[in-house]
TrEMBL record:
E.C. number: 3.5.4.16
InterPro entries assigned to the protein according to its UniProt record, in alphabetical order: GTP-CH-I_C/QueF (IPR043133), GTP-CH-I_N (IPR043134), GTP_CycHdrlase_I (IPR001474), GTP_CycHdrlase_I_CS (IPR018234), GTP_CycHdrlase_I_dom (IPR020602)
Domain GTP cyclohydrolase I residues, every copy: 41-218
Family (UniProt): Belongs to the GTP cyclohydrolase I family.
Name of the molecule in the record: GTP cyclohydrolase 1
Pathway: Cofactor biosynthesis; 7,8-dihydroneopterin triphosphate biosynthesis; 7,8-dihydroneopterin triphosphate from GTP: step 1/1
Quaternary organization: Homopolymer.
Signal peptide (UniProt feature, chain positions): none
Residues binding Zn(2+), per UniProt: 112, 115, 183
One MF annotation (Gene Ontology) recorded for this entry: GTP cyclohydrolase I activity
HAMAP family named among the record's database cross-references: FolE
Keywords: GTP-binding, Hydrolase, Metal-binding, Nucleotide-binding, One-carbon metabolism, Zinc
Length: 224
């Protein structure tokens, strides 16, 4: 797509048009250490706040550039760094459990890459074992790793499925995400009620019955 002026760039942001399934990282993405990145971003955040006219000598504001820089690098965008990728350990499916396993209501905290505002929601994941299984918390960790990046929800959904397919050695993986985008809820169109649902169905989940079964499970109202 050719982008030739600022108007188009804005339009792409509000339309949330995604690109490839891989996060668009530059080749030199990890040339700087995390502490070098924090120092650089700190100066940038300070510049933004000062440009807005804020007095950074104020007690309440003076720690903000450092706080935001650390949060970007170590927390909300920490999943850009391959070192943070959850280990790929699996276990043998000793029980010979042959049905689908569903983990639902996994909390998603991510950041919209078009506005740098939060995406908050739930992910539901299912797989059918091909001989190996993963620990349940591994699925939460995979969701969290890919969520901690500037994201578009479609890409996040695909990245989670691809990762689990690779770890488990099977195509039979599915993911549904239902999330609120603060860029839609709190600004722009300001629709507080709307949420966005994305799904990716691999292997057996492409068939109607298997997909139906998964979607029925995630509708179950679990209360403890
Ligand atoms: Zn957005």
């Amino acid at each position: 797509m050719k982008i030739d002026n600022d108007f188009n760039i804005d339009a792409i942001g509000d339309d949330h048009i995604g690109s490839a399934s891989d996060t668009p990282l530059r080749k030199d993405a990890f040339k700087l250490s995390n502490s070098e990145k924090i120092e650089s971003i700190k100066a940038d955040v300070q510049h933004i706040l000062e440009t807005l006219g804020l007095d950074l000598n104020d007690d309440s504001l003076k720690g903000t550039p450092n706080r935001v820089a650390k949060m970007f690098v170590n927390e909300i965008f920490g999943g850009l760094h391959p070192d943070k990728k959850p280990s790929a350990s699996t276990f043998e499916n000793k029980y010979k459990y042959g049905e689908m396993l569903v983990e639902k209501n996994i909390t998603v905290y991510s950041t919209c890459e078009h506005h740098l505002l939060p995406i908050v929601g739930k992910a539901h994941i299912a797989y059918i074992s091909n001989g190996s299984v993963v620990g349940l918390s591994k699925m939460n960790r995979i969701v969290d790793y890919y969520a901690k990046r500037p994201q578009v929800q479609e890409r996040l959904t695909i990245q989670i499925v691809k990762e689990l397919q690779e770890v488990l050695g099977t195509e039979d993986v599915a993911c549904v995400i239902d999330a609120k985008h603060l860029c839609v809820n709190s600004r722009g169109i300001r629709d507080v009620a709307s949420s966005t649902v994305t799904s990716e169905f691999g292997g057996k989940f492409k068939t109607k019955e298997t997909r139906r079964e998964f979607l029925d499970y995630i509708k179950l109202d679990t209360e403890f």
